[in-house]
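User: I've been trying to design a sequence by hand for this structure and keep getting stuck. Would you show me what you'd pick, starting by listing the structure so we're on the same page?

Assistant: Good idea, let's start from the same input. This is the structure you sent:
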Protein backbone atom coordinates (compact mmCIF):
# COMPACT_ATOMS: atom_id res chain seq x y z
CA UNK A 1 0.00 0.00 0.00
CA UNK A 2 1.26 3.51 -0.80
CA UNK A 3 0.08 6.92 0.26
CA UNK A 4 -2.31 9.01 -1.82
CA UNK A 5 0.44 11.63 -2.12
CA UNK A 6 2.85 9.05 -3.60
CA UNK A 7 0.22 7.82 -6.08
CA UNK A 8 -0.48 11.38 -7.16
CA UNK A 9 3.23 12.27 -7.56
CA UNK A 10 3.64 9.23 -9.86
CA UNK A 11 0.39 10.11 -11.68
CA UNK A 12 -0.83 6.53 -11.19
CA UNK A 13 -4.09 5.43 -12.77
CA UNK A 14 -5.78 2.13 -13.53
CA UNK A 15 -4.65 2.34 -17.16
CA UNK A 16 -0.97 3.08 -16.40
CA UNK A 17 1.64 0.38 -15.83
CA UNK A 18 3.62 0.62 -12.59
CA UNK A 19 6.61 -1.41 -11.47
CA UNK A 20 7.59 -2.45 -7.95
CA UNK A 21 11.30 -2.48 -7.13
CA UNK A 22 11.97 -4.44 -3.96
CA UNK A 23 15.29 -3.96 -2.16
CA UNK A 24 15.80 -5.43 1.31
CA UNK A 25 13.01 -4.06 3.50
CA UNK A 26 12.12 -1.19 1.16
CA UNK A 27 9.63 -1.02 -1.68
CA UNK A 28 9.89 1.57 -4.44
CA UNK A 29 7.26 2.14 -7.11
CA UNK A 30 8.02 3.63 -10.49
CA UNK A 31 6.29 4.33 -13.76
CA UNK A 32 7.69 3.44 -17.16
CA UNK A 33 9.23 6.87 -17.88
CA UNK A 34 11.18 6.77 -14.62
CA UNK A 35 12.32 3.17 -15.21
CA UNK A 36 13.57 4.12 -18.68
CA UNK A 37 15.45 7.11 -17.27
CA UNK A 38 17.13 5.04 -14.56
CA UNK A 39 18.18 2.28 -16.96
CA UNK A 40 19.86 4.64 -19.47
Amino acid sequence: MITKESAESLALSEEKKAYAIIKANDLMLGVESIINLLSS
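That's my pick for every position. To get oriented when you compare it with your attempt: Residues 4-39 form one domain. The chain is about 35% helix and 30% strand.
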